[in-house]
Amino acid sequence: MADLFGKIKKGIDKGIHVASQKSGELVETGKLQSQIISLKNDKKSSINELGKLTYEMLKSDSFELEVLEEKFKEILEIEKEIEQKEEAKKNVDQKETGETEEVEAETVEMSTCPKCGAENPADAMFCGKCGTKLGEEAEEAEETE
């Protein structure tokens, strides 16, 4: 009986661990997405500022290329940050997908009940369908009958 509770506890612990990892990954993904949105808004603002600067310069016939180039470099830096954040988000998403596939890939060994033919986990002590005792003890009991 203690073995059964140990297996149940192990399963619960594994479930808690996986849920904890998934929630951490969701938080990280949300944080990165928020940062990406903020950077995109900064980029739009900088592009608008560049446009206003260009307009004002052309309107007043005082064209200062250095000022425009500085604003342009600022926009390029923002674009680089956006790319980095999107790559980091992609890596978190891939990690999450890989772990999900790994958990799904873990297969439970199965055994067949000698009485009703139902599939049961190999470490089950009793059949989940008919209640027949399974395992080595059940085989020994059948041999003595």
UniProtKB/TrEMBL annotation:
User: Biological process GO terms, please?
Assistant: translation
Which UniProt keywords are present, listed alphabetically? ATP-binding, Helicase, Hydrolase, Nucleotide-binding
Which GO molecular-function terms appear in the entry? Answer: helicase activity
Q: Where is this chain compositionally biased, Basic and acidic residues type?
A: 85-98
Instruction: Show the segment(s) annotated as Disordered.
Output: 85-115
What InterPro entries would the database entry show?
A: Ribosomal_eL40_sf (IPR038587), Ribosomal_zn-bd (IPR011332), Zinc_ribbon_dom (IPR026870)
Residue ranges constituting the Zinc-ribbon domain according to the UniProt record:
113-134
TM helices/strands, residue ranges: none
Name the source's superkingdom. Bacteria
Specify the protein name.
Replication restart DNA helicase PriA
